[in-house]
Design a protein that fits this description.
The complex is a heterodimer of chains A (about 140) and B (about 500). Chain A contains 5 helices and no strands. The longest helix of chain A has about 30 residues. Chain A has a domain of about 90 residues: Helix Hairpins (Orthogonal Bundle). In chain A, about 75% of the residues lie in helices and about 0% in strands. Chain B is mainly alpha-helical and about 500 residues long. Chain B has a domain of about 210 residues. Helix content of chain B is about 75%, strand content about 0%. Chain B contains 20 helices and 2 strands. Chain B has a two-stranded antiparallel ribbon with strand order 1-2. In chain B, α9 packs antiparallel against α10. Chain B is globular. The model of chain B has no long low-confidence stretch (mean pLDDT about 90). The chains are: A mainly alpha (about 140), B mainly alpha (about 500). At the A-B interface, α3, α4 and α5 of A face α5 and α6 of B.
Chain lengths: ~140, ~500
């Protein structure tokens, strides 16, 4: 196994891994909630590529039955069918995610994660302060 | 009829969900979904009977034999999980979507999402096809995100969004793992995978597949370093949803972990070759302590329960990591016992939220006199969390400790007992606030409505009943573990 055959022979996996890492990196690093979802899409697409490329049989034709012909190598159609389902799942997840982002925008007035987190932390702090105040007031009364 | 039970188990809730969307009538939808969950409970109990008789109930869709067709395979382990999921659903569903943001007249949306989540979880547990597991996992997860976002607080939306991102990564990792297993074996059927993997187990592809699948499942199960989504999701979701999810969603993920380790890859490969327990044992122990310690310092009752869930998940994975029949049985029986206790506690939180208007612990002062029934339910379920004899918590701890002692793992035994003391601290804190401090002035003395109290007490009383009648739960769990490990050798 030379370096060249690793790169050239496994190029589909390199493409998959590159896309996967791009997607994951976007999901982790971007603060914009919509961009995160787009990163998630890229991530999911990379898995679709992984499945579709593993269905390819070397020298195989598309899996449509050729009548009369024997000794024909067909590519495996099952991964493609599985990925139809995965695409549907991906679309549904994106739709739910975007709907949540719309509600985040309505509730917080922003779709930047750091701003939302700052608002949430402020709320948490207020609640904790209120709890401490209530406890202190109770302690004096008792 | 009864031979179609495996299909009906999943089809009933999944088909009723769109029906609820069409019907829209609040009472009608409510009665219908309640009927479906009770029906599913009956079916799962019947399946349990069948599975205990014949070993594994196999249902082939369209009579296509495996590995061509998709099959549902029910053995004792997943029959037990099915019973847990449908029992909790039937108990909590009557409460409906009170305490949530669902506007008047739109309740049917809640029931639709609930039934989809319920059907998805049942599907994950029942199916004998790994790709099917992914699809059902996503069905239940998508419904879960919607249910969590129904919380009263706007933080619920953000909690749902974070869970969506993390949950999707988890499910996609599982999908990658499944894909790599398929690449090595050319099959998606669980029983078939187990056979065909024998020859190719020690290849790098299978090891990578195992790693992807385990990380994916661990995210859904909230194993310690991957638990970050859980506290926010459980804290801000409506109490009914928290009760349902804490009692079922993580349980189904735990079942998946058992299935992947024992049935598909085999304990010998996972624990002896890959030494998975070297990772899982410290993480479980850390979860037990960090979860309980974090719970002690919470100011919100629901968040306290969420952190305690992380600790309890630690007990379950610890049972798994002991890699013995006793250990697996301890994990499986704790699924049931924790579902009763934590479901009951989250419903208590629902009662408190309804009458007091918040679940801050400081607002629960004097609850013992203000809401005696609610407070006493909390005490009994809380004693279960500590593991007091006579409650289900004791049964779990007993099973886990005897599994650890069986392997002469003294350190682990001591750590289990020490972490129980931490549970004592956070439960005592609640008891102190409820009984030993006076109610704030002008506080209403009003018990929660029966609609809330009855399901709460059903779970709490069941947690005492099964604390004494251990044969039905521990016996089934042992049989399940025996079958699970026996098949894998």
């Amino acid at each position: 196994m030379t370096f060249l055959s690793n790169v050239a022979g496994l190029w589909n996996y390199w493409a998959v891994i590159t896309l996967m890492m791009i997607g994951l990196y976007i999901m982790i690093s971007r603060g914009n909630l919509v961009k995160k979802l787009m990163g998630m899409n890229i991530f999911q697409v990379s898995v679709i590529m992984l499945y579709v490329s593993m269905g390819k049989v070397a020298g195989g034709t598309p899996p449509i039955l050729i009548e009369g012909a024997e000794d024909v190598a067909y590519s495996n159609p099952l991964p493609h069918v599985l990925m139809l389902t995965a695409i549907v799942v991906g679309v549904a997840t994106t739709a739910v995610g975007l709907a949540l982002v719309v509600r985040v925008k309505e509730a917080y007035g922003t779709v930047e994660e750091d701003e939302v987190v700052a608002i949430d932390q402020a709320t948490d702090r207020e609640e904790a302060a209120a709890a401490r105040a209530a406890e202190a007031a109770h302690g004096e009364g008792a | 009829m009864s031979e179609h039970f495996p299909a009906l188990q999943v089809l009933l809730p999944v088909l009723t969900a769109p029906l609820c969307l069409l019907l829209r009538h609040p009472t009608l939808v409510r009665v219908l979904s309640l009927a479906v969950t009770v029906g599913c409970l009956g079916i799962s109990l019947a399946l349990m009977e069948q599975a205990r008789e014949v070993g594994t109930v196999v249902y082939e869709f369209g009579n296509w034999p495996r590995p061509l067709g998709i099959e549902y395979a029910v053995d004792t382990t997943n029959a037990f999980v099915l019973v847990i999921v449908s029992m909790i659903a039937a108990v909590v569903l009557p409460i409906g979507c009170r305490n949530s943001q669902v506007p008047e007249g739109r309740e049917y949306l809640f029931y639709s999402a609930f039934l989809l989540c319920f059907g998805g979880l049942l599907g994950v547990a029942i199916t004998g096809d790994v790709f099917n597991i992914f699809v059902f996992l996503e069905i239940s997860s998508l419904a879960t995100y919607i249910l969590i976002a129904m919380g009263r607080d706007r933080r619920a939306i953000m909690a749902a969004y974070s869970y969506l991102i993390v949950g999707t990564i988890g499910a996609t990792f599982l999908l990658i793992g499944i894909g790599l297993l398929y690449q090595m074996t050319g099959t998606l059927n669980i029983a078939d995978l187990a056979v065909r993997l024998e020859d190719v187990k020690e290849t790098r592809t299978v090891i990578v597949a195992f790693a992807f699948a385990m990380v994916g499942i661990s995210i859904k199960l909230a194993v310690l370093p991957l638990h970050h989504w859980l506290p926010n999701a459980y804290t801000h979701a409506p109490p009914v949803v928290s009760a349902f999810l804490s009692a079922t969603a993580t349980k189904v993920a735990y079942y998946l972990m058992l299935r992947f380790i024992y049935t598909i890859l085999g304990a010998g490969f996972v624990f002896d070759v890959l030494q998975f327990d070297v990772i899982l044992t410290p993480l479980s122990l850390a979860a037990m302590f960090i979860g309980s310690l974090a719970a002690i310092y919470q100011t919100d009752f629901k968040r306290l329960l969420a952190y305690s869930s992380i600790a309890q998940i630690g007990y379950m994975t610890l049972g798994l990591s002991l890699n013995s029949e006793l250990g697996a049985a301890a994990g499986i029986v704790h699924l049931f016992n924790h579902a009763l206790m934590k479901g009951g506690l989250f419903l208590v939180a629902g009662c408190v939220l309804l009458r007091v208007g918040s679940t801050a612990i400081v607002d629960m002062r004097g609850l013992g006199s203000r809401m005696p029934l609610t407070a006493s339910a909390l005490v009994i379920a809380g004693l279960g969390m500590i593991g007091v004899p006579g409650t289900v918590g004791f049964v779990s701890k007993w099973a886990l400790v005897s599994a650890a002692l069986d392997q002469q793992a003294w350190q682990i035994t001591v750590l289990i007992l020490l972490s129980s003391l931490l549970a004592l601290v956070y439960v005592w804190r609640l008891i102190e606030v409820m009984y030993l401090t006076e109610a704030p002035e002008g506080a209403e003395r009003r018990e929660a409505p029966p609609l809330y109290l009855i399901p709460t007490w059903i779970l709490v009383l069941a947690s005492v009943y099964f604390g004494f009648n251990t044969e039905s739960t521990l016996g089934v769990a042992r049989a399940a573990a025996h079958q699970l490990l026996g098949g894998a050798g």
